[in-house]
Amino acid sequence: MIDRLLPDEETPCRKQRYLKQDRSIRNDGVLKMRQSQTLIPTMREIPADAETKSHQLLLRAGFIRQTASGIYTFLPLGKRVLKKVEEIVRQEMDAAGAVEMLMPSLQQAELWQESGRWYTYGPELMRLKDRHDREFALGPTHEEVVTSIVRDEIKSYKRFPLIVYQIQTKFRDEKRPRFGLLRGREFIMKDAYSFHSNTQSLDEVYDRIFQAYSNIFRRLGLNFRAVIADSGAMGGKDTHEFMVLSEIGEDTIAYSDSSDYAANIEMAPVVSTYEKPDEPLKERQKVSTPNAKTIEEVSKLLKVEETRCIKTLLFKVDDKYVLVLVRGDHEVNDVKVKNYFQASVVELASPEEVKSVLGCPIGSLGPVEVKEGIQVIADHAVQAIVNGVCGANEDGWHFVNVNPERDFQVTAYTDLRFIQEGDPSPDGKGTIRFAKGIEVGHVFKLGTRYSEAMGAYYLDENGKSQPMIMGCYGIGVSRTVSAVAEQFNDEKGFIWPKQIAPFDVHLIAVNTKDEVQRELAEQLYQSLQKERYEVLFDDRPERAGVKFADADLIGLPVRVTVGKKASEGIVEVKVRKTQETFEVPASDIVSQLASIFERL
Ligand code: ATP
Ligand code: MG
């Protein structure tokens, strides 16, 4: 089924030419494939449960198939793209000084108990038992395994820094697997871990991997940003996420329109200042507000701007209740609440909890005369409100002409809200804009979180025992395939960038029953492969229309069609990206392709 290039066909001169032409990544020597003998099950109709363009096209063009929710098979074309993405990742990781290895997916519970994550990871961790009733997990990530290995094998500072990586299947029992490869329950990740004896070394390697990631995503042709991220449950400090800008992204990125500042919206500090209007304070009044629950309804009913309303929310911060105030047109950022209290868990109180703690529905909450023992914190913007409006902690009632300090006290005014479009950029340069992003990579300074928990110590220059300092670095390889697929397509199908297209050329014999056509096509099939082009040969006895539609759907960079003019030695070339079509003598095809690929 698969035609392999014999090693002795790889002449130095041919190799030179291939390198110069910079076509796709090659890693397996399989340069050609007959469509009649492989598995590319294309479909015309749009699969009902595929919501995104990438998911639809990966299914329709026969790259992947779902076997269970969030679990996929990579069919031959999908596998080829995956391999090429992996190869780019490998090249850049190797260049950054990382060494490849392979750790097991099946991990004994004891390791996870040592780090403590056995108890905190939650239902995403796939747990199972062996025949002796011993507990295991299917690895969602490998901090535990790698820390235990390095702990056992390395004792001296002289061996650092050490950077290891692997490309491997990960398991996470995601609550909502979706968008095909984008959020799977079984997916392929490149994960790397670095070990150091000092923080300068960690900083240096972090920057190097950061650069490697930028190279990888640039080489894939992705429109991406590295954004400041939340260190979350990992317990690290510095961390960046690599986000591909896309409408279907689940994360919102706040970026500056005039600098390279970009942050996950949860992480962007608000640097706005607010001026307090110079108005006389009016007498506070309680007014009836039947059926007005949201800020919008209250502001309409009472004819007050939303900027004068005080939005009040009850949060459960670890085991205490806290009232959080922001201006009516702002939203509370619970990560900021969490960071302010340095809490482990922050949750919005449910309507039932609000009822039982403050005796009113959520739409009537306010900071005036709050029950003792409940702390109140407020966003800076609230401090500048004069004669404002807030709930009266009584169903159907609000206060008007409420003034901070005079009518209620707060423990602290601090930054608690989400940044908004139009706010000044936190770096002082320009204005904030929003974009949606797909997280394809994540770099993270772990510090000693795992080494201390798991006893990974080394001896420093003075023979003193110290915990290893660590970093970890992930790329969602299969998710990246989806992100590329999402970015490179049109209404007819994929338009794969040449670096990772499953093949370079789609060779089509229009009428396989016509001997002249068949023969010329066979000849080109052989000669293009000799020139190190990867060729998918549509030799199926199908109608021309079917073959052309499939070729557009599959989206290889160049289509070469052998049709009626085969008798004159003429073939048609079509560039998928630009849709240009032209006829060339078959004898010129090699030079034509060289110049096309150079331009692509
Ligand atoms: P997300 O926030 O999207 O759930 P994460 O922050 O939990 O991802 P990490 O633990 O940082 O993910 O994993 C490293 C990389 O693995 C991510 O940047 C992402 O590209 C990829 N990844 C994570 N979860 C999935 C998944 N369910 N399916 C596919 N790729 C994933
Ligand atoms: Mg992440």
Summarize this, please?
Homodimer. The protein has 600 residues and is an alpha+beta fold.
Q: Which percent range describes the beta-strand content?
A: 25-35%
Class from secondary-structure proportions: alpha+beta
Query: What do we call the CATH homologous superfamily of the largest domain?
Result: Bira Bifunctional Protein, Domain 2
What is the share of helical residues?
Answer: 25-40%
Number of strands: 33
The name of the CATH topology of the largest domain is BirA Bifunctional Protein, domain 2
- The CATH architecture term of the largest domain is 2-Layer Sandwich
Q: Count the domains.
A: 3
Roughly how many Å apart are the termini? 30 Å
| Distinct helical segment count | 16
Oligomer: single chain
> Could you give a short account of the major beta sheet?
9 strands, mixed
CATH class label of the largest domain:
Alpha Beta
Mind telling me the C-alpha Rg? 30 Å
Give structural notes:
It is found in: Cytoplasm. Belongs to the class-II aminoacyl-tRNA synthetase family. ProS type 1 subfamily. GO terms for molecular function: aminoacyl-tRNA deacylase activity; ATP binding; catalytic activity, acting on a protein; proline-tRNA ligase activity; transferase activity. This is Proline--tRNA ligase. By secondary structure, the chain is α+β, with helices and mostly antiparallel strands. The protein has three domains: 248 residues, 2-Layer Sandwich (BirA Bifunctional Protein, domain 2); 130 residues, Alpha-Beta Complex (YbaK protein); 95 residues, 3-Layer(aba) Sandwich (Rossmann fold). It is 27% helix and 29% strand. It contains 16 helices and 33 strands. Strands 5, 9, 10, 11, 12, 13, 14, 23 and 26 form a nine-stranded mixed β-sheet that branches. Strands 1-2-30-29-31-32-33 form a seven-stranded mixed β-sheet, with helices on both faces. A five-stranded mixed β-sheet has the order 18-16-17-19-22. Helix 2 packs across helix 13, helix 3 runs antiparallel to helix 7 and helix 3 crosses helix 13. The N terminus is likely disordered. The structure holds adenosine-5'-triphosphate and magnesium ion. Adenosine-5'-triphosphate binds next to strand 10, strand 23, strand 26 and helix 13.
